[in-house]
């Protein structure tokens, strides 16, 4: 159910516009962690020559088949988990992760792997939801976090995405933080997000 729900909830035009912004500036060989059903493929710039995908769900991968077949960019599935990327160090020109860092069980290890396989001049592009700076919203995020995890395949509402990226040895060079969609108050625990670019700093 989770891949179907994810595909439906994250394919809205407003999210598509954010995906386009997250993909802007990607180039060369790209590692995408949390490929899902391939919703980022239509937004890849011409400078991207190949995508290596990490995707844990066989159903998610199957649902991406039509998008992969119609994409000008070749896509290869290289693994099931972001915690262990099957690639030599300094392999990729760019890395992309969208709406996945909330779910990866050992997210610190996964980001360390992204850091390892990125070239020193490479960039990590991310679009994620997570911890809100608004005290009332954050309080509800903490209350709902365990239920969210059970209902949505391990998804967390409370992760500090920019902090996790920095702790993995990246320098965040671009960052926009806001509620990604104009939702009413009851939806705000799910709507706060981060759109950014980071580069290896160590």
What does this structure look like?
With 202 residues, the protein is of the alpha/beta class. It has one domain: 3-Layer(aba) Sandwich (Rossmann fold), CATH 3.40.50.150. The protein is built from eight helices and seven strands. Strands 3-2-1-4-5-7-6 form a seven-stranded mixed β-sheet. It is globular. The N and C termini lie far apart (39 Å). The mean pLDDT is 91.
Q: How many DSSP-defined strands?
A: 7
**Whole-Å distance between the termini?**
39 Å
Domain tally: 1
Shape: globular
Radius of gyration: 16 Å
Explain the layout of strands and helices.
Blueprint lengths: L1 H8 L3 H11 L4 E6 L14 E7 L3 H6 L1 H6 L4 E5 L12 E7 L8 H11 E12 L5 H17 L9 H7 L2 E10 L8 H4 E9 L2
Parallel strand pairs: 1-2, 1-4, 2-3, 4-5
Antiparallel strand pairs: 5-7, 6-7
Q: What are the defining features of this structure?
A:
8 helices, 202 residues, 35% helix, Rossmann fold, alpha/beta
